Amino acid sequence: MRHDANFGRMRGRSGLRLAGAVALSALLAAAGPALAQQAPELDALVASGDLPPLEERLPANPLVLNADSIGTYGGTWHMGMRGGGDNGLIVKTVAYEGLVRFDQEWKTVVPNLAESWEANEDATEYTFHLRQGVKWSDGTPFTSADIEFAVEIYNDPDYPAGSWIDNVNNPVHLEVIDDYTFKFRFDQPNGMLMDEMASVNGIHITSLQKAYCSQFHPKYNENAAAEAEAKGFSSWALYLQDRCAWGWETIRFSNPDLPTLYAWVIDQPLSANASHVTWDRNPYYWKVDAEGNQLPYMDHLDMRVSESIEELTLLALNGEIDFQERHIATNTNKPLFYDGQEAGDYHLGEIIPSASNTLVLQLNFNHDDPVKRALYQDKNFRIGISEAIDREEIVDVVFTGQGEPFQVAPRPESPFYDEELAKQYTEFNPESAIEHLEAAGLTETNGDGVRLMSDGRPAKITVDVISSLRPEWIDILEIMQLQLSSVGIEIELNNIDRTLFYDKRPGNEFDAQVWAGDGGLEVVQEPRYYFPANDESVWAWRWAQWFNGTRPEIAEEPADWAKEQMELYKQIRSSSDPDQRADLMKQILAITKEQFPVIGVSLMPNGYSIIKNNLGNAPETMFNAWLFPTPSPMDPATWYFK
Amino acid sequence: MVQFVIRRFIAMVLTMFAISFVAFAIIQLPPGDYLTAYIAQLSATGEQVDPKVIENLRQQYGLGEPYLVQYWKWVSGIMVGNFGQSFEWKRPVSELIWGRLGNSILLEGIAVIAMWLIALPIGVYAAVRKYSLGDYLATVLGFIGLAVPNFFFALILMYLSFTWFGETIGGLYSPEFENARWSLAKLWDFLSNAWIPVLVLATAGTAELIRILRANLLDELKKPYVTTARAKGLPEWRVILKYPVRLALNPLVSTIGWLLPALVSGSVIVSVVMNLPTAGPMLLRSLTTQDMYLAGAIILLLSVLTVVGTLISDILLAWIDPRIRYGGK
């Protein structure tokens, strides 16, 4: 089946946009590229012969971005990034250029560098057709050879990098058909490939230019090892990594020579000592607006690198940031930014987070202690805890009334939203809580009023938390601590560092860990709390290992219901039909509802973005997630200064 | 004296070795290593990392080796000026730290000088004019300076400059000078930006110096040799500056060695808050990501500062206080 003509599934504006895009590019092709315009600053370069004329730089069929209005060229987009490897901001702003991408509503996968694609029935073969005539920022053509090189590098045992391309369980096998056509083949069905490729992870495959990067590989350059040594690197692989880091690696943005496919190219690179990272327009960018003008509209990006959140906050208040959400748009800062709108000449946009929950309490189902293991796996125990939490109080105290009691479930904006799943056991009901705890065998208490487990030890749960990541976690847990102690459950807070947090998992040295509720919108792609799916399914870490086969030495066979979910998920992977996949996911969620594996607190409240008032085409409302790397899907290339 | 300096120098080198060993051990103490931290980040973004890939990386980075082997590699590299690679930046550490250490030393050096220049006259005045209005004023201001945490003072200044002048304070240079070579214009730009962090860094120290100097000087002023000097008709300023102040400085001078590292560590939070490109934020960051060669190099160099500072204070002490002379000459 072909996906490129998949308009039936597309709804709303983006469907119209794409239809318009195809019609317009046909028109462009008919009328010839004479229609197209470029940024005035490039005119002189073309006139002097330093740059080929626009029609030689644009592909035959440029991607047309239909924004609300046609913009004007010029200006610098100011934003702020954290010091020390804030590669996330760069990735989410400029580096999201994969073969395909998500539409603005995060509903369907739409063409990007690939013009179209087909998949076979059992999702083991995908054929891609590249947009012809796309050029890297250094002017060399982007072809199947670059894809081939990327696949080769990812699979090179001397060059360790992990991604879906060299996924141990189901690696990509590539077959190049011609310069613009190639085929991915998989040993096992890979029905979710298109979603993966449209997510932020999709950029891995388009991040390595063969012409430039091959010079650091011994297969293409016999002196590669010696040259690496001369530069002070102990192996060619480290030198290659330094020059050609993949996808969204931090140091990828510290090499200004590296050719890219982004709308802007690096001028001042990211480094340990950089105080600004700056970008200039890419004269070879392959997207145009509805009138055929080459994008982007803005000449430059300027990212202020700052260790100081306070400084960034003040910059935004002072109107020195044009668009931003990351780092500064916190709950606590909201009143400040709200009040500063007039003085700073900006306004606040709406951000819908992808996370469903403010805090997910994950009890360790695979605990080494058999008594705790049995207790944590007892659904009555979890219901008891959940009903003993007064969520309204937490929402009022910690989130100033924003949000509502919520379990770990798809968000209301998601097509998978199920009110019963989202609301079960969220009612504050101490009597029922006590009944459930007693049903779980916690009938006796000690002198301190703490219930005793079957072997006579008090029911004390040590909860690992990283408060530096989200300070509100500690606030929530401290309230929960009081609430739970009134039903005889003791919670001990163990506030630790991120490395220790992760280090405890393989050793199975934890009672419980907390995190935010990822997977509220990207339900199929990030099912960590719905079944033991991946390394972030901390509540059943060893079951997840069994499912993934990554650490066989500590894997444990899951309970039957979890196995059933895993079976369903395998079917999702082997289906190339989105409707069928959605149907299967609903079956998984039904089991999640029945089993109630993790405990949530409240719906993650909406965030906000800071938008300068003179910024055109900027999104007033958008989703925010890592896999949907906002604001990039909202096409910053079409933003402009009025 | 020369003999003394040579002896101290040999002791210094040995101390440095001990420090490097301990520093490296401390960095290795937290569970996990750079790769654990790295994988934690990848994993949180939804990426699955194959344990075999991690094992390969661990080999590549030499993280799988025993402590002593890793330590030896590191230390033997340092002797030829190679501080190892920063994992996070994939760059030689020596390439990364000098600029930041330079900024640190410059900034904190100026802060120390500012501190002394402000504290000495005020301290002397406060002691000589004991219980006068000026003394009380200096005491009150001094206590406020001591009591307000530096980072908080920095925040207040940032807030005031924003609300009063609409200026965002941060960094040490204006954007146009950040990557420029040193010139008079850049120096001026630096000074016009640096006075705020210098002020912040110097306040607490100044207050402390004033108190110590005042107390020491009060002790000395009562001693008979001061009375004798006065009786012999020396002008008052000479009486005070030539003898009692010199003696009162003794404890201050002997702690110069501690001043440098205290300033550096004290400036970490201020640097983070004010976004100063000094070694502090880099150290903090490298410790959280367990970028151990980078962290190790910074800790080691800070220790060098301490040791050198101690040497300086010993020499100064011998110079200002004739009672302390080494080697009998």
What does this structure look like?
The complex is a heterodimer of chains A (642) and B (329). With 642 residues, chain A is of the alpha+beta class. Chain A is built from 22 helices and 23 strands. In chain B, 76% of the residues lie in helices and 1% in strands. A two-stranded antiparallel ribbon of chain B has the order 1-2. In chain B, α1 packs antiparallel against α15. The radius of gyration of chain B is 24 Å and the shape is globular. At the A-B interface, α9, α10 and α19 of A face α2, α3, β1, β2 and α5 of B. Chain A: Its main location: periplasm. Chain A: It is found in: Periplasm. Chain A: This is ABC transporter substrate-binding protein. Chain A: Keywords: Signal.
Reading side by side through the largest sheet of chain B, how are the strands ordered?
1-2
Q: Any idea of the CATH topology of the domain at 103-325 in chain B?
A: MetI-like fold
**Kindly, what is the distance between the CA atoms of the first and last residues of chain B, rounded to a whole number of angstroms?**
7 Å
Write down the Rg of chain A: 26 Å
